[in-house]
Amino acid sequence: MWKILFIPEAMKDLKHMDNNIKHQVLTGINKVGKNPLPKREGGYGNPLGNIKGHDLTGFFKIKYQGIGIRVVYALKRSEMKMIIIVISARANDQSYKEAQKRNLKYMSDFKV
Fold first, then answer.
1. Is residue 38 helix, strand or coil?
2. What is the mean pLDDT of residues 59-87?
3. Which residues contact 54 (CB under 8 A, 6 or more apart)?
4. Among 20, 24, 43, 55, which is least packed, fewest CB within 10 Å?
């Protein structure tokens, strides 16, 4: 079973959301958390790469189209941990910008 962890900034992202949206986001995270591996390996993961100048290779996303939210997460396969990096609006690729910043801050924590 995969353990779902949130970096402190991602917890703050979640706390600032309306309770209804927060519930939807957590439901999606828990669903993906059952098998967060890439789709090509039979999981739910949507791999990211180099997106508009943001190198997020090794990261994955959960996209909530109805509410305009995107979650970016990393995996520590050796420890079966799904680490939530960003929960933010999809507009203007804000989630990717934040993920790249947070990746630089926590880089060694995200290494597989």
1. strand
2. 93
3. 93, 96, 97, 99, 100
4. 20
Helix (H) or strand (E) holding 8: helix 8-15
Count of structural domains, the chain: 1
For the record, the structure tokens of 78 come out as: 């050796």
Domain housing 40: 3-106
Residue 23 maps to a domain = yes
Name the helix (H) or strand (E) containing 102. Answer: helix 94-106
**pTM (2 decimals)?**
0.90
Q: Is 77 exposed, middle or buried (0-12, 13-18, 19+ CB in 10 A)?
A: exposed
- Please report, for the domain that includes residue 17, its CATH number: 3.30.2310.20
pLDDT at 112: 42
Per the listing, tokens 């929960």 go with 87
Q: Is the distance from CB of 63 to CB of 46 less than 8 angstroms? A: yes
